[in-house]
Design brief:
alpha+beta, L,D-transpeptidase catalytic domain-like, 19 strands
């Protein structure tokens, strides 16, 4: 994606600008920019954009630009139409005065120079807000502890806004700045459908303790109507259903619904299922919008292959570039960090290496709170679990029989604890390293039973894989000599760790999306297990200027 200027949108609080500091614009325009207030805007305070608005008017020679001869330019009208349709982008048209600009434009012909200038500045602010929100999101994720590894967030905002004032097709140019990520695009396409669904509330569904296919069920028609609207039941199947009975076709459709909502697919109308069935479509639309916001935070560099982990969905997808998008080569369930204590960070990175037969260097938090208390009570745990006590610097012999002094050394940080490769190793037979500052990685696990649970937040922050051999085969697929048989042989062999560098770039992104779309267009919704949606919604409700 190409931008044409060099002004960085860093969203820091700009220093106060006095009128004398602005060269070029008229005294009146300088004063408006220095005050950074537009009373006609819903969110009138734009001090966070003042530096960019000042640069915008300097670049354009200190003149108003969206109005010529007392009338809005064709570019202004086209851009205003985009602001009015912001809801279709998962944003809010009211944040950019989308419904107000037609009337304001109509009133310009009888307006004074001061009124034209006020319009022009307010319109510029709304355009900049929209462009920034569409490309980067509205909230700085670092402020919510929901960040992508603290990466800088840049947008050549001034040049882009200036470009729109003379562009032949400014609407198309605005479309170009959106993220091209497959998860973002697929979810964005669902907004019109859920906007329409939210206009037509359905009858509530009631829970039933015992209900088998064929049983009488008074809510059968209401359930069928809802499942048809959601695409889990076809209209033809619905027409064939007898009135007032819970038939096998209806149960099968309900199971498809349960799968899409992270529930056990048992076809039962229990309370968890009924809660999901009765969730308003407006809430589903909010989930979509919040997930789109997070996709805008993820500044990803183009790569031929991508590994995507979605925390609330507890799954991983391995993707490869195909045409203008990506195709899913591999999908599996994962275990992520515990909701209350060890949340997995949202981040991006590049896959570096695959390590077979890894050694686990036990983190100090786990050592202090979990292993040391057990080790003091049961010294034999050291040998049983394959642990060794080793010097911090790496020089010196390993201790396999814990003495009181050795345990004290672990407690004070003078010694460290490792777990040797083997069947009990917490990392299993293989782990995947990718660049990030949180020391998070993907790995195998001996605790395979955890993947049978519908909710899988059990780890200390790293990500456990259901099918690690399959992922290793995919990651090393373009490395000569590495195929599925070689990977399995290496995982089951004995010996010290073996590291295999990744041959070609693979982008890793860990996201938090309570709404996703699969390759067939089916929409999935998940619980807000970390409460990130709630925190983000509260921050967005505060409006401009957001606390960057």
């Amino acid at each position: 994606m190409k931008f044409y200027t060099a002004v960085v949108l860093a969203f820091l609080s700009p220093a106060f600008f006095s009128a004398s500091e602005l060269a070029g614009p008229s005294a009146s325009l300088q004063g408006r920019i220095a005050r950074a207030r537009s009373p006609q805007l819903r969110w009138s305070n734009w001090t966070d954009y003042r530096v960019y608005v000042a640069e915008f008017y300097k670049r354009l020679g200190g003149r108003t630009t969206w109005v010529q001869g007392g009338v809005p330019t064709p570019q202004a009208r086209e851009v205003a139409a985009k602001l009015a349709s912001a809801d279709l982008k998962g944003l809010s048209a009211s944040a950019y005065e989308g419904d107000q600009w037609p009337a304001r434009m109509a009133a310009l012909a009888s307006g004074s120079g001061s009124k034209l200038e006020a319009f022009d500045v307010a319109f510029t602010v709304s355009v900049m807000r929209y462009l920034s929100d569409l490309r980067l999101g509205r909230i700085n994720p670092a402020k919510l502890a929901q960040g992508f590894d603290g990466k800088s967030r840049r947008l050549f905002l001034v040049g882009l806004a200036a470009e729109l004032t003379t562009a032949q097709n400014p609407g198309a140019r605005m479309e170009q700045i959106e993220p091209s990520l497959p998860g973002y695009r697929a979810l964005l396409a669902q907004i019109p459908r859920y906007l329409e669904l939210s206009k037509h509330p359905f009858k509530p569904i009631h829970a039933v303790k015992k209900l088998a296919p064929g049983d009488v069920y008074p809510d059968a028609q209401a359930l069928a109507d809802l499942l048809v609207a959601l695409g889990d039941l076809t209209p033809e199947e619905a027409k064939a259903l007898p009135e007032g009975r819970y038939m096998p076709a209806l149960a099968a459709a309900l199971m498809r619904f349960q799968v899409r909502h992270g529930l056990d697919a048992d076809g039962k109308l229990g309370m968890k299922t009924v809660v999901q069935l009765n969730t308003p479509f407006s809430r589903r639309l909010t989930q979509i919008r919040l997930t789109l916001e997070r996709w805008r935070w993820a500044e990803l560099e183009p790569a031929p292959r991508m590994i995507q982990v979605n925390i609330p969905a507890f799954n991983l997808s391995a993707l490869s570039a195909k045409g203008d998008g990506y195709q899913t080569d591999l999908w599996m369930r994962v275990v992520v960090g515990k909701a209350l204590l060890h949340q997995t960070h949202l981040l991006t990175g590049k896959m570096d290496a695959v390590i077979f037969r890894p050694t686990w260097d036990v983190p100090r938090s786990i050592l202090q709170h979990e292993i040391l208390p057990k080790l003091r009570k049961h010294p034999s745990l050291l040998g049983q679990e394959g642990y060794e006590i080793v010097p911090v610097g790496g020089a010196g012999a390993a201790i396999t029989v814990p003495t009181a002094a050795a345990v004290d050394g672990l407690a004070t940080g003078k010694l460290r604890l490792i777990q040797k490769p083997g069947p009990r190793n917490a990392l299993g037979h293989v782990k995947f390293l990718f660049t990030n500052s949180f020391q998070i990685y993907l790995h195998d696990t001996p605790a395979q039973i955890a993947f049978e649970s519908s909710r899988r937040d059990f780890s200390h922050g790293c990500i456990r894989l259901e099918h690690p051999a399959d992922l290793a085969t995919w990651v090393l697929g373009d490395t000569p000599g590495w195929n599925a048989e070689k990977v399995k042989a290496e995982m089951t062999a004995e010996g010290s760790p073996s590291m295999v560098p990744v041959n070609s770039p693979i982008q890793v992104v860990i996201v938090y999306g309570t709404a996703t779309v699969d390759g067939t267009g089916k929409v999935y919704f998940y619980d807000d297990i970390y409460g990130n949606d709630k925190r983000l919604a509260r921050a967005l409700a505060a409006g401009y200027p957001y606390r960057w």
